[in-house]
Specification:
Length: 264
């Protein structure tokens, strides 16, 4: 079910009633003007024992901290949650609520927080939830600012997670602080991830590529538009053994000189 336009309080009340009767399994409210008040009104229905909602799509709804907290604290059944393009905001605030949801929730499998203004501390709060989560399979965090700081909690949490299969942290300034390269490398060497999207960051350590090659779980690695400049011959040979088989690596838009491998 998709609702267009700007839903009124009456519209939201009707939706909440339908949710409480278990009549909706998918609700798409993307590109409306739900805001925090609408989220608070919906949250009571999400927590109702009869609610059977599995997909909740809230992209671009001018939702900020109060609304994110309301949705996060009440979600029991939703498997796919999209908050892309909302103002989750800086610091821990709303991100702590998201982390708490991840820590206790037993239904969520897909979470989209792209373009939500999640900063370094917010990422750490989400990472804390990831360390305790056992259901999430895909986490999209592209176009935030996770790397603008020294708190690497998002990757510390990921190191403890054994269920996440896909992670997107495209365009997050990761690598601008030098120690991030080491943290990312350590995680990739032992992660259960199979699809990683790290494009448009500032990563430069080729040890990261070694980690990807040696991790049999990883199948797709997008490292395009970073700051890789050279790849050791041994690493290239190891790559060649997996490429064309079970691994795809994108190194385009890097300044590679040994040789410019591009998309592999």
């Amino acid at each position: 079910n998709r609702i267009g336009g700007c839903p009124t309080a009456e519209d939201i009340a009707s939706l909440a009633a339908a949710l409480k009767r278990g009549h909706l399994t998918k609700l798409d409210l993307s590109y409306n003007d739900l805001r925090c008040r609408g989220c608070v009104l919906l949250s009571g229905a999400l927590n109702d024992p009869n609610c059977a909602l599995q997909e909740l799509l809230l992209e671009k709804n001018d939702i900020s901290r109060e609304g994110v907290v309301a949705i996060s604290n009440s979600n029991r059944t939703v498997q796919r949650l999209v908050l892309k393009g909302n103002n989750v905001g800086r610091g821990r605030g709303a991100c702590e609520a998201i982390g708490s949801m991840l820590a206790r929730n037993k239904s969520l499998q897909f979470l989209d927080l792209s373009s939500c203004g999640v900063d370094n501390e917010g990422g750490a709060a989400i990472g804390d939830g990831l360390s305790k989560n056992s259901t999430l399979e895909c986490l999209l965090l592209g176009k935030n600012s996770l790397g603008r700081g020294s708190n690497m909690g998002i990757f510390l949490g990921l190191a403890e997670n054994t269920c996440l299969a896909e992670m997107d942290v495209t365009a997050n300034s990761i690598g601008e602080v030098a120690s991030w390269d080491d943290a990312v490398t350590r995680v990739l060497s032992s992660s259960f991830l199979s699809r990683i999207h790290f494009a448009n960051n500032s990563l430069s350590s080729t040890r990261m590529i070694d980690a990807i090659v040696s991790n049999a779980h990883i199948r797709i690695a997008d490292l395009s538009d970073n700051k890789f400049e050279s790849i050791a011959v041994d690493t290239q040979l190891a790559l060649a053994k997996r490429l064309g088989g079970d691994l795809e690596v994108d190194l385009s838009l890097n300044s590679l000189s040994s040789p410019p491998l591009g998309k592999l």
